[in-house]
Amino acid sequence: MIYLITTIPLVLYAFFFYKFIRKYEFYHYGVTAIIALAFGLVEGHNFFNEGFLGVTFFIIVMFTGVLTKSILKQRLNQVRAQYAIIGFIFISGHAIPYLSYLLDEGLVFAHSTIIIGIICYVIFVPLFITSFMIIRKRMTFRQWKSVHQFAYASYILIFVHLLLINNSRQLFYIVLLSIYVVLKTISLIEKYYIKRQIKQKLMKL
Questions:
Q1: How far apart are CA 126 and CA 150, in angstroms?
Q2: Is 42 helix (H, G, I), strand (E, B) or coil?
């Protein structure tokens, strides 16, 4: 339920205000950083430092890539990079305290959930950096694409991390991951047949 409460408003915000988000993206990053820092330093668990909001942004980014062609997909694609950056900033408020703990205590004493979460966070770092247009412009499309192939590994690790946490949302995570895998498989099959048709047409020329 908590993800529905956060996902629906964020999808609607992107759908209706995608131009505003793109135009004032750095204001969004600044506000996000202030919130993540403020609540990340608060002792005890809260909505922000437990990573719920960061995961919500990543879920939207994930599913945008496998949606069928529609106006919703077009609008979400417009802010996919911005949402990925915002998601990373929110996740940082959750991950950095655990990273600090890991550095102090060492891998031997860390729970597998923490280790997997930190690995996932480390993978996200180059994805975060190359999501900024100023960095992306300095890379070829092939270079950028090769870096962002690691996003799929990070998606899987996010769900492994979430599933290892013993709570009532485990079934929800399993269903969500299953839906994503099915949609991604369908997307890959469609791309394969489109490429095949193009290749056949070119051979006939």
A1: 9
A2: coil
Our measurement of the distance from residue 137's CA atom to the centroid of its chain's CA atoms, rounded to an integer in Å, reads 21
- Tell me the per-residue pLDDT of 28-40, one tens digit each, with 9 for 90 and over: 999 999 988 887 6
pLDDT digits (tens, 9 = 90+) for 55-69: 899 999 999 988 888
Pair 50, 87: CB distance under 8 Å: no
Give this prediction's pTM: 0.86
CB atoms within 10 A of CB 47: 12
State how far the Cα of 165 lies from the Cα of 62, in Å rounded to an integer: 21
Measure Cα distances from 147 to 26, 80, 151 in Å.
23, 16, 8
- Say if residues 83 and 183 touch (Cβ distance below 8 Å): no
Cα–Cα distances in Å, from 75 out to 41, 63, 91? 34, 13, 24
Quick one: DSSP state of residue 35? H
